[in-house]
Amino acid sequence: MRASLIQIAVDRDEPVDSRRRRAAALVREQRGSALVVLPELWTVGAFAYDSFEAEAETLDGPTRRAMAEAAADAGVWLHAGSVVERAADGRLFNTSLVFSPEGRLAGVYRKIHRFGFDKGEAVMMAAGEELVTVRLPDATLGLGTCYDLRFPELFRGLVDAGADLLVVPAGWPERRRAHWTLLARARAVENQAYVLACSTAGTHAGVEQAGHSTVVDPWGEVLAEAGAGEEILAVDLDPKRPAESREQFPALKDRRLGLAPPVVRGS
Ligand SMILES: NC(=O)CC(=O)C(=O)O
Predict the structure, then answer these.
(1) CATH number of domain containing 95
(2) Most buried residue among 54, 151, 180, 223 by CB atoms closer than 10 A?
(3) Cα(200) to centroid of ligand 1, in Å?
(4) For atom 8 of ligand 1, which residue has the closest CA?
(5) Which domain holds residue 72?
(6) Where is each CN hydrolase domain found (predicted)?
């Protein structure tokens, strides 16, 4: 099962329409892959907060249309990264879209953990509330986005729902690159699942992006890692590997759920 991660560069100088056309062309070039992944907010830039309102789109917007066509033309499952979604009630969400090889919208995930603490995404966007998995013929995708990677309970929830291939589009900044690789490997090891972590390259809103998209296997080994610039990372995955790994080293079965709350001792 070939997976291709498109680490597209998001530079402020390139108009969104141009990048959308370029992304669609790159997806079409991945014919033969089973799964293609784009990063978080690659249209506008994850840190380009001042463009969120202007570039927000509905789930019928230009990115959905372009990506549905590209997935169908290439005949691939496409995790099209995320867009700034304007919901019917006017709220904005950081929303990931997954398409089937026929171009059908097969999954919609609204980022649950918003980044920025008291500014940016954290105040401009609403939080998603639902965990989302998408069943492919040979694997079950579990969806998370960027900052979500820091929250292990989300991914454990996805694994409990059957996920064995965790897909994390991101616009990760270079200054926290050490966390990116470490967290991707941690989520893979603790869940005995593949992790496909696809970040943007380039610099927008003054934030240098990490690039270094990474594919980690269920044993925590890094199968492939991109450099800093625009790049396609193509990796062959064995869909049986997560189940085999969980069978051979059945740590997930040793979980102790439902323990009593901690006893606080001392004065
Ligand atoms: N941009 C994000 O969503 C997450 C991030 O930057 C981090 O360090 O975490």
Answers:
(1) 3.60.110.10
(2) 180
(3) 12
(4) 176
(5) 2-252
(6) 1-239
SS (H, E, C) 135-184: ECCCCEEEECCHHHHHCHHHHHHHHHCCCCEEEEEECCEHHHHHHHHHHH
Residue of 213, 207, 18 whose CA lies nearest to 116: 207
What tokens appear for 262 in the block?
A: 């901690």
Predicted ipTM beyond 0.95? yes
Cα–Cα distance measured from residue 169 to residue 96, given in angstroms and rounded to the nearest whole number? 8
pLDDT in tens, 118-157: 999 999 999 999 999 999 999 999 999 999 999 999 999 9
CA gap 226, 233 in Å, rounded: 6
Q: Count up the domains in the chain and report the number.
A: 1
Side chain identity, residue 67: M
Residue among 93, 125, 145, 146 whose CB has most ligand 1 atoms within 8 A, to mutate: 146
Round to whole Å and give the CA distance between 212 and 197. Answer: 9
Distance 204 CA to ligand 1 centre (A): 14
146 Cα: distance to centroid of ligand 1 (angstroms):
6
In a domain, 173, yes or no: yes
